[in-house]
Amino acid sequence: MLKLWLQYWGQPLPVDVSSMRAKPDAGHQTKQLVTVALLGALSALLQSAGGLLPGPGYLISPFATAPIVLATAMSIRSGLSSFMLALVLLLIIQPSELIVFPFTTGLLGLAIGYGILRFGNRVKVITFAALVLAAGIVLLIYGFRFPILGPSGVMDFRISTFVYVVLFSWIYSAIWLEVSLRLLSRIKKAI
What is the pTM of this model? Predict the structure, then answer.
């Protein structure tokens, strides 16, 4: 059982995203530009749902990670473009979400997309994404003193809070990697 578990986490990723990359012809570049713009706009709309629809919107806003992962899986440049577009749109639509997106959901999307492009297996992608997400959350909590853990969250540095943030980041990144791989495989079949 342990051997199967280790094989699962150590095996190469089941999705090859090389077919999603830009071809040299101008028509494909235009399609990619439009796709990146739509993914950035979708990410901004999903992230702003938390402020526009209090309650159910908070369940919708974590899905802002998915469009950034898809754009980054096309290329790192596409992912950064989509990320920056989402930031600009959030500045217009819902400025209160502007501090959360670049350090949590958007950053996680960039990290997972980059990991899918650059690393060979799940453990490397998840560990990289978890470290990036944990760094963003820790920066929000201790650097900017933003109460991302809620109003009762601890703002003074505690090792227990740091450990919980890292563990949460690892589990959350693992979940998002699996969601992203399934989403990418369905999109690849449709292409």
Answer: 0.88
